[in-house]
Design brief:
This protein is an alpha/beta fold and 352 residues long. It has two domains: 2-32 and 314-351; 38-310, 3-Layer(aba) Sandwich (Rossmann fold), CATH 3.40.50. It is built from twelve helices and six strands. The chain has a six-stranded mixed β-sheet, sandwiched between helices. A hairpin with a 6-residue loop joins β2 (83-88) and β3. The radius of gyration is 27 Å and the shape is globular.
Length: 352
């Protein structure tokens, strides 16, 4: 009787160790997962995310971006999370610093064009030439200080990006964003975020529904399908278009600006206060998530960037295996002893 009880104890102990091993391994692997598409991961997350390091962000936008910043309390959210947020609107508005003070200085965006083709042109500029706005968006100047070193560059086209494109037109816009993504690879010590353009209000023009649908299908969906960012770890896409759109195929607003996000006073495609107030923190959270998922060396902006994956490469997996398999070794040893013991008991009983 005692022998049987001892056998049961050994079996339970071995089972517990093996279970602990697999549970612990799963937990460690889960914690080491890299978010490949943060657009989908935190799109609806309104929980605060704290930045793990001090970062300087600059956001190039036009009127929709300006409303998002103001009505969504974007600058305040960034400030509360240890992040300096600068932005640049139309050339006439120019640069605004982290305190929300307009500096009366512009980076002279060529033709004030922040659509896909204009943004592509900016990214193809010489980042070493002080006269180019691309250099200014990376290395920073407020007209006096030329050493700001922006760590993260966010770009966004306005809603006319969706105006009346054919499928081919929409795909050409996607190709511009693909060029931008590829250019980001040249700056591993910087983070880049592309914000998809807000959808059009389908009630404003008859062709807006088709335009929204084509741009969604042949541009934005291509950029957020999970493969667009593979191999481009410092580039992210925040799909604001999706958040603002109606997703009911039978609706007149399908692929267009949601009715509750429309400005009632006049027919327009600018998202209203409700949309901006709901999405401001989402925008900040997404940006902070990108920062935390791509560790940047702020002490030396020109140094090669060290990512979390690089820090863990080489020895971390070996360390995990050698540690986690220790319970398995003990468990197997106990099972072997149990087998030999049971065999010995069986032999004795047979002799009797």
């Amino acid at each position: 009787m005692i022998n049987n009880k001892l056998s049961y104890i050994v079996i339970l102990l071995s089972f517990s160790m093996i279970s602990s091993l697999f549970m612990n391994t799963y937990r460690l692997n889960f914690n080491n997962l890299k978010i490949s598409d943060p657009t989908k991961e935190i799109k609806y997350n309104d929980n605060p995310i704290t930045s793990q390091q001090h970062v300087r962000v600059i956001f190039l936008h036009h009127s929709c971006g300006s409303n998002l910043i103001t009505e969504g309390s974007v600058r305040e959210w960034f400030t509360a999370n240890n992040t300096d947020f600068w932005d640049h609107g139309y050339n006439g508005d120019g640069l605004t610093n982290q305190d929300g003070v307009s500096l009366g200085y512009s980076y002279d965006v060529p033709s004030d064009n922040t659509f896909a083709d204009g943004l592509d042109d900016i990214f193809q500029q010489n980042d070493k030439d002080p006269s180019t706005c691309f250099k200014k968006f990376l290395h920073g100047t407020d007209g006096i200080d030329c050493g700001l070193e922006f760590d993260l560059f966010i770009i966004k086209a306005c809603f006319p990006e969706n105006w009346n494109p054919t499928p081919d037109d929409a795909y050409q816009r996607f190709l511009h964003y693909r060029n931008i993504r590829d250019r980001c690879d040249d700056f591993p010590n910087r983070i880049f975020i592309i914000v998809t353009a807000p959808p059009l209000n389908n009630d404003v023009e008859i062709g807006n529904l088709e335009g929204n649908n084509n741009t969604r299908k042949y541009c934005w969906d291509y950029m957020t399908n999970g493969t667009f960012l593979e191999g481009h770890s410092n580039c992210f896409v925040w799909d604001w278009n999706y958040l603002l759109s109606n997703h009911t195929p039978s609706s007149d607003d399908y692929c267009g600006l949601r009715e509750d996000f429309q400005i009632i006073e006049y027919e327009d495609s600018h998202p209203n206060y409700l949309a901006n107030s709901q999405h401001g923190q989402l925008f900040v959270n997404f940006t902070l998530s990108a920062i935390n998922n791509y560790s940047i060396s702020l002490s030396c902006p020109s140094c090669p960037l060290t990512t979390n994956d690089d820090d863990n490469a080489g020895d971390s997996n070996n360390a995990t295996i050698s540690f986690d398999y220790f319970p398995l070794i003990i468990a197997m040893f106990c099972l072997v002893l149990l087998v030999f013991r049971q065999k010995r008991i069986f032999s004795k009983n047979k002799e009797k």
